[in-house]
Amino acid sequence: MKTRKIVVLDAASLGDDLDLTLFEAFGDLTVYRETDSANAADHLRDADIAILNKVRLTAEILAAVPSLRLICEAATGYDNIDIPYCRAHGVAVCNVVGYSTQCVAQLTVSMALSLVTRLREFGDYVRSGAYTASGIPNRLTPVFHEIAGKTWGIIGYGNIGKQVAKVADALGCRVIVNRRNPMASSERECVTLDDICRRSDILSIHTPLNESTRNLLDREHIAMLRKDAIVINVARGAVTDEHALAEALEQGNLGGIGVDVYTQEPFSVDHPFNRIKNFPNVLLTPHMAWGGYETRVRLMSEMVENIRSFLGNIPRNRVDLL
Prior knowledge:
This protein is an alpha/beta fold. It folds into 2 domains: 5-97 and 293-321, Rossmann fold (3-Layer(aba) Sandwich), CATH 3.40.50; 101-284, Rossmann fold, CATH 3.40.50. It has 12 helices and 12 strands. It starts with a strand and ends in an 11-residue tail after the last helix.
């Protein structure tokens, strides 16, 4: 009987502090630090199970690996995998839901608080030596404001959006939400995309990327935002018009942005965010919101359970069955 072959395609994206040998319980394990479209099929040769985080598996790549039975996405989003091909050819695809809720919400709130409180500018003032040289015991410019009483708009009211809403409640914000299916209950005030753009002091995005959300926050909606509004995107880069966001910052038509995700990762030297990355009201992080240590340990455990369930013919987190 053929020994089952398991391949981890992009271990570097999972961090160097995790024990991947736990997957050896299911067969022979091969680990690649990095994989791209040019070598994906070769790395997956004769594989039964693929474990990946950011690698894009197109129909062409998948067709070259007929042995593949299961793809384990080390994330909640799975837009990097050709799901229609997998459905048509009997390849199971499992994602992991809810593992990063606390961590992504934590970065979202951290960005909002930092931008509202102008922490980058005040910190730079001290680090530069200007505070010591001033002889003045305090500095209150640039002017900053309390977050209590602000309107916090949330686009995408899933697990992460709900956790952000809880923290926003605790900070004294008024929370409004926009979601694909407006809620029938009175749990939250659910508004249109136009309304949430016009009314929000802070707007955070937590929606998955699909054809209905691609470029959701487009140039037209960015123009609706208040001039002092803060936009935080921890969802997917392509749900916003990155060029329009950069231009709004450059023209002084937006209060600030906090972004952890990009259409191209890492973004290129000619990406519009390179023009604004040093602005004091811009916080850009390298797609790290999901990756706290405890979060990644939880992710590994969930993927182990996904594999075990699949081998036991028990559907678990099967996005190809949706």
